[in-house]
Amino acid sequence: MNAPVRAGHQVRALDWRDASDVRRIESFVAEHRASLFHRPAWLQAVAAGTGQRAAGLISERLGVVTGWLPLTEVRSALFGKALVSSGFGVGGGICAETPEVARLLAAAAETQAMAGGFGGIELRGGPIPESWDAWSDKHCGFVRPLAANDEAELNAIPRKARAEVRKGLALDHRVTIGRGRDDLAAHFACYSQSVRNLGTPVFPRALFAAMLDALPDNSDILTVWDGDTPLASVLSFYHNGAVMPFWGGGVFAARAARANERMYYELMLHARRKGMEHFDFGRSKTGSGPFAFKKNWGFAPEPLTYGAWTAPGAKGRNIDPTDAGYSRKIDLWKKLPLAIANTLGPWIARGLA
């Protein structure tokens, strides 16, 4: 795709085989302090870990990048085909220097979707074209500054949640931080059991490994242990001065051990020592249990604006786990033996980008 457009701008597809092309976009993302999910490295990790193809559209003027739309080409037998910005992210969307460039990128994405047989386009943040559907009532983000020291960090947590953290600290479970094979194994053991218990298919283990490989200086795994048994574990990212605990969870015993509370507090301390200034608790479905948990930790919810375009005659995909149509499936999934859930889950979850 290579389309001349108005005002001297040209929109084309990123050439993933051209390392210099990829580096130019990494530089554009860094210069504009765009999200982690705008980084080509993120899209490449998604592709390596799930098989969902990385794509993306660049706007240029006189050889200078003026806009970027990261895309994951999601293909799923269960959930259909869509261009998602950005695959498996909670952010992304169009990053453009002007509203005109944003409109050009959106129009080019529509053309690409039609040509590729994709039923729609999903934008997670950024400017949403006026003709597209947009909403801000389904998800909220939670971000706050990190405190100046360990004690201040503890005191910044509201009283009830702070009491739970103190109980976890008193148990003095071992905490490790790393990026090796053992860290990955501990993380998957905790995370897979956690999402199974919520009735959600687990993402492929290969996705987590691919993220660590693609972002070696911006990711790690923190795990809370009871002896040699992992209780809770979280894979986090570091970007633009913020730590993002992205994929985390605990086994059944984590609740009594307050391992999740200990995990997030220890991550706050670790992030500050790494030079981070903010704790980005990620998004949660408005009104959900995780939404309430984050509010109880003193985080103020900020609505997230998402948008979507649906191709003529197509039906928009529905991957909302709270939709009534999924309730019976979720209940059944919660009852699956963990080994079966971990075998079937990645095949399903790769389509939930």
From TrEMBL:
Residue ranges constituting the BioF2-like acetyltransferase domain according to the UniProt record: 160-294
Source taxonomy: Bacteria, Pseudomonadati, Pseudomonadota, Alphaproteobacteria, Sphingomonadales
Highest taxon listed in the record's lineage: Bacteria
Pfam families: Acetyltransf_6
InterPro entries cross-referenced by the UniProt entry: Acyl_CoA_acyltransferase, BioF2-like_GNAT_dom, PEP-CTERM_FemAB-rel
The protein, known as: FemAB family PEP-CTERM system-associated protein
N-terminal signal peptide: none
